[in-house]
Structure prediction request, 247 residues.
Amino acid sequence: MFDIIKDWREQRILDNSEFTHADWLQAAQRIVILDRLNEDELTRLFELATLFLADKSITGAQGFEISDTVRQSIALQACLPILNLSLEWYAGWSAIIIYPSSYKSETTTVDELGIVHEGSQHRSGEAWLRGPVILSWKDAKHSGERDGHNVVIHEFVHKLDMLNGRANGFPPLQVDMNPARWTEIMTRDFEDFQSHHKSGLDRYGATNPAEFFAVLSEVFFETPQKLIDAYPDIYDIMMKFFRQTPL
Prediction:
């Protein structure tokens, strides 16, 4: 019964969408990395993005105006990682906040002596556990250009990682995946990345396992050959996790 109601509700949202297929197609043409998708995949992405916009609120900070271009761009790229999964992977939170450019975030750290240090840093995006995704439009509007950097995918992959707790580079895996193999590969290659520069991979990924997973997910969708060249085993397990073959 609940599945029937859910399907009816989703179909009603799709039938009453403010954007036509042509509108979505025009928006997708501005995002270069989507050109690898076939017609069926694009249609599925457009439907996911429509349901995504009905489920999430997108608001501007510091007076930033949320246009249709902004909404469609964020929705399309946020839904790319879950193209062959489902919107349920983004359950448990509802807000997206867009700043016009990088913004200052307060930070609190505790050193090895237990001393608390407070400060601030400029960010282009962040994802909160059970809270919002926050993005800088100055950075997000250049996402999807096939340059290996995509702040939208980065932050929304953090949300996938957080489905089973704080982001740690170990998201809930598909039922046919081996958790031990994921741990072995990601741990081994993260340790390697901390010591070795890899072409096309942002050094920010060496910060911790969560950032490693998010940074390499950007590369998986943007410049997959770079990931294959650097860490072929990670490309393999990401294909199994995302259920996609972007190369």
Observations:
- Residues 34 and 200 are 19 Å apart (CA to CA).
